[in-house]
Specification:
187 residues, alpha/beta, Rossmann fold, six-stranded mixed beta sheet, two-stranded antiparallel ribbon, 7 helices, 8 strands, 37% helix
């Protein structure tokens, strides 16, 4: 089984559930994907780091300085990619975007070794509407970031990709809901 198939299997077994769910977007769905059950596991991190890094370098070459997105979903994915890049000729840093700026300490909204003007790829765990990625992009554009594109772990195929593309962004996904669903056990 290749690494991508391993990821689809992990997502189906650990993260995906059939039923009736209300999503954070307010929409209802018969599929729920709790990506954290995969992204925060050792084998999930290893697969996601390797596949994410491979996708980022295949698409953008050595132009990416950092990866990250809105906390909490993007965090383990960005960290896995950064870790996977550590021994490459072009290591990639990870950062996280807080939903709101801290009211204490440094007052930062972007945490980690992010530098103003970085060329970045926005990370998203699950794209439904694209709203989380767009929130992170707004913050980062105010920090003079050059947004190269969006990398999602899962595209739910419910219009989020199109919303991001309509905003002028290139979107890549390691998995699509339609690829995961056949492997999700029926209840």
């Amino acid at each position: 089984m290749d690494t991508r198939q391993q990821l689809l299997t992990l997502l189906a077994e650990r993260s995906a559930r059939r039923g009736h769910f209300v999503l954070s977007s307010g929409r209802t769905s018969n599929l729920y994907v709790d990506a954290r059950l995969t992204t925060m596991s050792p084998d999930g991190l290893a697969l996601i780091g390797a596949l994410g890094l491979s996708t980022v370098t295949d698409v953008f070459g050595d132009t990416v300085d950092a990866v990250g997105g809105l906390t909490l979903g993007a965090d383990p994915i960005a960290y896995a990619i950064a870790y996977a890049s550590a021994t490459t000729a072009h290591p990639i840093r990870a950062f996280t975007v807080r939903k709101e700026a801290k009211v204490h300490g440094t007052g930062r909204q972007v945490e980690g070794p992010y530098k103003r003007g970085d060329r970045i790829v926005i990370i998203e765990d699950v794209i439904t509407t694209g709203g989380s990625a767009l929130r992170a992009i707004d913050v980062l554009r105010n920090h003079n970031a050059t947004i190269l594109g969006v990398l999602a772990l899962v595209d739910r195929e419910e219009g989020g990709r199109e919303a991001l593309e309509d905003a002028g962004l290139k979107v890549y996904a390691l998995a699509r809901a339609s690829e995961i669903l056949p492997f999700v056990p029926k209840q």
